Amino acid sequence: MIRISVLLALVAVPVCAQNLTFDPSLTENCMVASSDSFAMQGCIGKSATHCSLETPEGISTAVMQSCFELEMSYWDQRLNDSYQRFMSGLKLEDENNPFPGKSPKSPALLQMQRSWITFRDAKCEFADVLWGRNNAGALARAHCLMTETAMQTIHLETSETGR
């Protein structure tokens, strides 16, 4: 009987994720309305917060974690798009560089991004450990991944556009 209860409890979490009320347009509209990177930082978590508050199951660790993960996916897609645009522009700039001794920029972007991924993963793993590798740790890790991915997205987008 205990095994069945545990199994049902494990199955119930993914069912909850199917009923999430996630709207990335809240974050997107905030980003469009922001004039600089500082204002853009205020957009981080808008959709996740709304998701947590509006999901029918109510606020719970599982719902909050799922909402953070959904917003992290939004930022990750945006990050990948920005990185690809930025890299394409830098490669073109490197190819057309009239100064032969000048360091190319595209390898530096690649190295920076690789280093950032290592840093982000270590930082968010530490958040999980710090909170005890339990539900709170998983929540802290999900929040960290969302926030760090969003911050890197903003960094790349503002570096790319000069905004």
TrEMBL record:
Q: Which domain of life is it from?
A: Bacteria
Q: Name the species this protein comes from.
A: Roseovarius pelagicus
Q: What's the protein here called?
A: DUF1311 domain-containing protein
User: Is-annotated flag, keyword Repressor?
Assistant: no
Q: Which InterPro entries match?
A: LprI-like_N
Keywords, comma-separated and alphabetical: Signal
The UniProt entry, under Gene3D superfamilies, shows: 1.20.1270.180
Please list the residue ranges annotated as the Lysozyme inhibitor LprI-like N-terminal domain.
59-153
Signal peptide residues are 1-17
